[in-house]
Amino acid sequence: MENKRIVLVGAGNMATSFAVALKKSGNAPVAVWSRTMESASQLGNLVGCAYTDKLSALPPADVVIISVVDSALRDVAAEVSALYPDALILHTAGSIPLEALHEAGAVRYGVFYPMQTMSKSNIVPFDNVTIFIEGNDEADVAYLQSLASSLSRKVVYATSEQRRFLHIAAVFSCNFPNALYMMAADILERNNLPFDAMLPLIDEAANKVHRMHPLDAQTGPAKRGDSNVMESHKALLDDELAAIYDIMSNYIMKRNK
Description:
Order of helices and strands: EHEHEEHEHEEHEHHHHHH
CATH class of the largest domain: Alpha Beta
CATH topology of the largest domain: Rossmann fold
Distance between the termini: 51 Å
CATH architecture of the largest domain: 3-Layer(aba) Sandwich
Oligomer: single chain
Helix content: 40-55%
Low-confidence stretches: none
Radius of gyration: 22 Å
Number of strands: 8
Number of domains: 2
Number of helices: 11
Structural class: alpha/beta
């Protein structure tokens, strides 16, 4: 794969993981931008490239990867497209359609969406992360396939419509379970019990779905249809948590009929 000059627009959680993965693959960005010089310098220094808080100060590039919050993406993409009329403009958002870049003025455009939760404090290797790609041009899609394959063993082409459902599934797979952990932590802390007692259980539950379908991995009182236990649990909860418990239990019972 021919090395291209890559500029990264954004310096948040996703952008940081991307920058590190790109450097590891031999495709380190030539520069990064953030709206604050502090964030720009942190990421630039991390991967050893130029950095700036002014889009107009970015160097020439063949590929521009925009990794900013969804609410700012279209406005930033319009500025980037004007600055780089000949470059391949990419975004990394799960819920933004490919055509948003075209509407922002990009001529060559695509999507580079890794299915992973990311944070600056815990940079996750991309080796085993599925990267979903999309593009408006056959040659650019071939480049995206090559670039993604240099970062990960798992690369899949997905349309914008498919990616909408990927994003929803990611919320159910990651964000909602974490909210449930928050609820569990609250229940335990109110009763002077440690949340870390749940960690082996959480780890084993997550590991099981590597080996079997989630439907087959389900356990617990709802799976067994044990109404006495479920009613006793709900009696110990406030109205909000009891309602959530009821919805989840009913779903599990329905799926296991």
